Sequence to fold (465 residues):
Amino acid sequence: MQLKVEAEHAGKYVRCPGCNTKMQIPAETDETEAEIARSVPRLNIPAPTAALKTSTKQAQETAVAPSAPVERQFGSRGGWTETDPTNANIFMSLGIGAGATTLFLLFLLAFSPPDGTPSSSYTFMQYISRVWTGHLAVNGLNTLFFFWAISILGLKLLKLKHQREAMLLDVLPYELGNQINAENVGIFIDHLYKLPARLRDSLMVNRIRKALELFEIKQSTGDTVHLMSAQSDIDGGRIASSFTAVKAFLWAIPIMGFIGTVLGLSHALLSLSFDNLEDVKAIIGVLKGVISGLGSAFDATLVGLVFAMLVNFPMNGLFKAEDENLNDIDSFCNEVLIPRLSDGAGVAGGDHEAVMNHLVRAVASAQNDFLVDLNALSGTMLQYAENLEARAVEHQQRVSDEFSMVLDRMREDVTLAVADSVRNTTDHTRALADGIGSLNKVLTELGEKQVVINQTIKKGWFSRG
Fold:
């Protein structure tokens, strides 16, 4: 197994993160690493520093030709089971916290002062024991919260140590090739699978494995960079969410202290009574009891605030350490992995076959993207057409309903108008018939009577007689 360390650690003794064997880091890099460093034709790629190798001859014997063709099917390796890199087991931390709380309270009870001992003669441990036993329920629960939070931070610290140990792995050795391309990417992936199982299950190795496996099938540096950026965001969110329980305890501990104080004040005030105002000694005794109760009441707040401060500093320090570890992984991917990826976009003009292969892959990828977009557009247009047809049918039905409603209303209005006209005509006809009948009756009566007409003869110049 090859490891990489910073140059300032050369000559020091360390323990191997894989087998825990003590070894000495070589004082100088060998010739093979110097030759590899000089042959890297890229910028901002840090040259390999002191590595735990045996000799130049052994490195040459174990080197693999980077141009060897490797034919593999994506996903055939199966990967490995990834454990949670930052979240502590809640039940394990609860068990550790409960055990530590029990031992701590038993330790304090051993220093409990005898009854009747004045507070002025307390020793330091007796005073601490009295502070806890004054409000044992509240302080005991706060103690459980404190040790639970500390156990979560301790388990997270062990996980962080594991992540830092995995950072020592030489995950992308230059012996396998200066560049990572479609021909040798499988060799680099196989190298990751040969790493110790305990160390390869880490944030850095998992991210590099996913990036190389995507590069193996997509052969696109842009897609690989996008994947690593998205994975970095996922890891950052996972680290931030792993502190949720500790932040909840950090909020609950001082609140429980205030609750204990309120309960102590309530009991102290309830015990305040002046049944015999003439007895000065009785009044002084009552006041001493109230003052003592008030003093023990504020002890709960004191315990809560101290616990909150003791949790806050380690939590923020651990969060900063995990964030720096994530930044180191991002820097390694940006400065070492990405510059070594070669998808054929920058090949020389004389390599016509490589250019054609890259063009074929680019055209195929573009065609595939075009077909995907076309299918999506076709589905969208089909959906629009179905919606338009449904709206047209709905509009036609609405027009038909409104036309039928108007037609029925018009038919009803015409029927009512015709009925009124017929009724008026009938009334007029009936009145006319009555008038004609009355006229016939008058004429009949006139026909039965004789009318005598007397003519008066006028006398004048031209009259007879």
The beta strands are 13-15, 22-24. Confidence is low (pLDDT under 50) at residues 30-75, 346-351.
